[in-house]
Specification:
193 residues, four-stranded antiparallel sheet, two-stranded antiparallel sheet, alpha+beta
Length: 193
């Protein structure tokens, strides 16, 4: 999980305009966070008593072995866990969590990329911008697309088909950067990776 990144190259002094469009900083706190799922006739506790915070401008890593609940934890914080029951307190900027407002300010990059194999990264980003930013002009959306391509180092593959297991295309890293760009198009305050 990290606050939305920007592409500044300290060595060359190049600053991308892409980072200037992010929305208000979010301070996320959780206290005594629990999560359980129904497992047949029994309830299974996945998360127990978690407390912590994310401050604006910080990069936070959640680490642990497979099956430790890392993805579930991120799903709960991002409001993507309808498959169980969460309890505890989550606040955003000191206010109780309002998922409707909060969801518009965050981005969530899935573990498995959900991209159209027959689109190029540029086409994918244009499609995303048109869907998520209808209030912007065509020129503004195109500038966002080009800024995202530059910021995430996708220039060399911007017009290559994304591809799939059955169809050659982008490398795994290029696909992941495209998936991140798709989420950054809407200028989130917080991104879950």
């Amino acid at each position: 999980m990290s606050h939305a990144p920007y592409s500044d190259d300290v060595e060359t002094g190049h600053t991308s305009p892409f980072h200037t469009r992010f929305t208000e900083p979010l301070a996320l706190r959780w206290s005594n966070l629990n999560f359980e799922v129904q497992d047949g006739d029994a309830k299974k506790q996945i998360l127990t008593g978690l407390s912590g915070k994310l401050q604006p401008g910080e990069l936070t890593a959640i680490m642990g072995p497979s099956g430790a609940g890392k993805s579930t934890f991120m799903n709960v914080l991002a409001g993507r866990a309808p498959y169980g029951k969460a309890s505890g307190t989550i606040t955003v900027n000191g206010e109780p969590l309002d998922m409707k407002t909060y969801r518009k300010k965050l981005a969530y990059v899935m573990q498995q990329d959900a991209l159209f194999a027959t689109q190029t990264p540029r086409e994918c980003l244009r499609f995303t911008a048109a869907l998520r930013l209808p209030e912007k002009s065509d020129e503004e959306r195109e500038q966002l697309v080009e800024d995202a391509i530059e910021a995430l180092n996708l220039k060399k593959c911007a017009d290559t088909l994304i591809g799939s297991v059955m169809m050659p295309g982008l490398s795994g890293g290029e696909k992941k950067r495209t998936a991140v760009a798709v989420e950054l198009i809407s200028s989130p305050s917080l991104i879950f990776l």
